[in-house]
Design goal:
By secondary structure, this protein is mainly beta. It has no helices and 8 strands.
Amino acid sequence: MAAASYSTVSPVGLPTWIELLSPTESGFKVDTWSGNINNWLQYDLYPPTMTTLSGQRAFGAAAVTAIGTAFSIVGKHGEKDTIEVWQVADDMVDWTPAGNIDVGDAWD
């Protein structure tokens, strides 16, 4: 399931940015709209930190917050699912890992 978020800190209430994350077999495809240029800043980008690493991870549902923090349920071959967290950089293009949340036996 895709996830989207936006920020509206402009004085007239228009979005300053929109992030759209779509899970694919290769990882997350990220599209970013920039209010500063009133156009797409990037389209169909696969950030290296959000790829499947040659089939070693499978991304599930995702969520994105208004401050550009993304969460996804991630299945790893032979391991329990975790929730991976990323934070978008100030350039609105680069994503850095922000940790994992161990869900323990929550899915059992």
